């Protein structure tokens, strides 16, 4: 069976045909009863408030709730208020799946905003696919996925690594040590990094994965000293980011000669470790708190007013915030009786929003988002100095590093015919 093009457009056109596109009609028929009853629209908020990734996921919960409250304060959607059903999946993928089922089946949420780790996203997606519900995922991730039941608003590798790795090679050298947490996301990102390094004549001098929550980096740091890489490429997540940076500095290593270049170190982890431990290291992301746009000044000001004047925003809390507005715009396009996950998905495709990072858009071809890649250098103040900034938004290409794979019209990955 030959697939012509990786895109959803045919699927989108077929959506009007309801069951013909594979969507159970029950969702459409019960839409007004189940999803928009009693003057409210229920949405799930599924971010860990405990466990090893609570350090970053708490900010996702907070940004999501801020957007929901703002929307309600401005009158809601079609006069209906958003009702947030909040769950704490405790940094545990199995608990994510269990809570997701509750939000979809018992609470009848019309959409759920959730997840930081790819492990938790992969754990919940079967629930959203089975019940044909919609998951809004704000986190940068490895790509190679395009579920019809997910809207992806974080960066994929062509929006984070594509220009970053050549820039690192040019400025620091070709010898990379890859250090990540032990799960799917770091391994896949490192595979992309290896593909790019090969093209650039680079070399991987070490590759290592530590358990989630790992806090003892002495043996890893000894390997940095032994192998003397030009760049330590880090996809360590959660509390471990703090331990790694502190122990790196305590071991006397110097970012000027052996910087850590991360995809996952944000203002949030830096606030926890102290800016002096992050200064001189790098992160690639479409958003930093230091972005100078009117929308970002408002976002940061409102966030600090609500949560405390020392609170930081970061490259995942920003999409967690703006994706609620994309959801709102999608639901606004529907008449109240049609509000249901499949109709929201269709209405979300092509939506644009003036986010703190710049104008973003959900690509109807793959449900991912056009974003504005940047490279930042961490400062002792805890902020990033933006040293590279894309001049235009960058199309999301979740299969960019794997030209042999495509996304099918029903959202599955398949080898190219
Ligand atoms: C991640 O696991 N996508 C950070």
Q: Number of folding domains?
A: 2
Question: What proportion of the residues form beta strands (DSSP E)?
Answer: 15-25%
Ligand inventory reads:
acetamide
What best-fitting shape do the alpha-carbon axes yield?
globular
Summarize the helices and strands and which ones pair or pack.
Elements lengths: L8 H6 L10 H5 L1 H5 L4 E7 L7 H20 L7 E7 L5 H14 L4 E4 L3 H13 L4 E3 L12 E3 L4 H4 L3 H9 L2 E7 L2 H16 L3 E8 L7 H10 L3 E5 L3 H12 L9 E3 L4 H7 L1 H4 L3 E4 L8 H14 L9 H16 L8 H8 L3 E4 L2 E5 L6 E2 L3 E5 L5 E6 L15 E3 L5 E3 L2
Parallel strand pairs: 1-2, 1-3, 3-4, 4-5, 6-7, 6-8, 8-9, 9-10
Antiparallel strand pairs: 10-14, 11-12, 12-13, 14-15, 16-17
Helix pairs in contact: 4-15, 5-6, 11-12, 15-16
The structure holds acetamide.
Account of the 3D structure:
By secondary structure, the protein is an alpha/beta fold. It folds into 2 domains: 5-155 and 293-371, Rossmann fold (3-Layer(aba) Sandwich), CATH 3.40.50; 158-285, Response regulator (Rossmann fold, 3-Layer(aba) Sandwich). The chain is 39% helix and 19% strand. It has helices at residues 9-14, 25-29, 31-35, 54-73, 93-106, 118-130, 157-160, 164-172, 184-199, 218-227, 239-250, 267-273, 275-278, 294-307, 317-332, 341-348; strands at residues 40-46, 81-87, 111-114, 135-137, 150-152, 175-181, 203-210, 231-235, 260-262, 282-285, 352-355, 358-362, 369-370, 374-378, 384-389, 405-407, 413-415. The strands form 4 sheets. Strands 7-6-8-9-10-14-15 form a 7-stranded mixed β-sheet, sandwiched between helices. A hairpin with a 2-residue loop joins strand 11 and strand 12. The longest helix is centred in the first third of the chain and has 20 residues, at 54-73. Mean pLDDT is 92; it is low at 1-33. Residues 116-118, 139-141, 185, 237, 264 line the site of acetamide (ACM). The site of acetamide has 9 residues, from loops.
